Amino acid sequence: MTLPPLLDVKDLTVEFRQGRRTPPLRAVDTVTLSIAAGETVGLVGESGSGKSTIGRAVLGLNRVHSGRVRFEGQDITHASSRTRRALSTRLQVVFQDPYSSLNPARTIGQTLAEPLLAHGRPPKHTMETRIARMLRRVGMPPDTADRYPGQFSGGQRQRIAIARALMPEPRLVICDEPVSALDLSIQAQVMNLLADLQRDLDLSYLFIAHDLPVVRHLSHRIVVLYRGRVMETGPAAALYADPVHPYTEALLAAVPQPDPRAQRNRTPGRAATTTPAAPSPVGCPFAHRCPHAVDLCRREQPPLLPLPDGRAAACHRTTELRFLSTARQAQPHT
Known about the structure:
Oligomer: single chain
Mean pLDDT: 88
Number of strands: 12
Strand order of the largest sheet: 6-7-8-3-9-10-12-11
CATH superfamily of the largest domain: P-loop containing nucleotide triphosphate hydrolases
Largest sheet: 8 strands, mixed
C-alpha cells in the first residue's frame, strides 16, 4: 500500500501585480510536486526561476493564484492565520541569510523558546532542557543559549536557525537557500548536519537552491525550474549523471571544474545557453537560449511528459536528443 505524500502541490500558479494597467507577472506556472515522509526534494534553478516563491506559497507567505497545496492530507492553499499558526508545529522553514533571520536583541535561548511559547507556556525547566538538547544536536554548546547572535559566525548562526526550526518537532522543513551565504567548507558541514538530522528525526525537506551539486548531495529527487515552469524532474542521481533537458545540461555546465582542460571544453556549451535574446511569449520558455531549439519549440509550449526511467521532461526533442546522446557515447574513443 502506497502512503499519501506528506506535501502535495498540484498545478500551483502564483502571480504578482505590477500595476493597474500592466498584466500580472506569473512567477510560478502550474507547478506540480510531492514530498513523501522522510524524503528530500530539491528545487533548483537560476535566480528568478520561482523556486523561493513556491516555498513561500507552501508557507502561506505568497498568495496562490490557482492550484492546490495539501499538507498531511489537509488543503492549506488558502488556510486562515489560525490554521497556519497550528501548522507551524509541523511545518517550519530555514531562511537563506543567517545574519538577518535572528533577532540581534534577543538571546539564543529566547529565540529558540519562541516556537514553544507560541503554542503554550511549558514549565521553564522543561523549556531549558529542550533548548540545551537541541543546541547539542546541531553541534552547539548549551551555554550558547545565554549569548547573542552577534557573538557567532555565519555557520554557527545557521546551525542556530536550524535548531529554532526544529524546536516544535516539525515533519517538513523548507530550506530556502540555507547554505548559499556560507563558505564552501561551512556549506559541507551544514549539509552533513541536515542529512544527520533527517536520519535521526525522520524529517522531510523541500530543499531550495540554485547550485545543482549542492541539491544533489541531500536530495532524493530533484525538480528543475526555469521561469516558473518545471523543465525536468526525476531521481537525483540519474538527473545529475544523465540530464535530459537542455536547461539541466546548462546548469551542470555552469558548475566550475577543477581541471582547466575540462573547464575549457565546457565553454562552448555554456556560451550557447547564455544568449541575451528575450524569450518568446509563446513556446518553450528556454527556446531563446537552447542550442537545440527548432521552430516548433518557439511556437508551442512542450508539456511535461513522463519518461520510461521514472523521470519527466518538458522538451519537444527529448527522444531525439537522448538517441543522439546515446549514439555519441557508443562511438569508440580515438
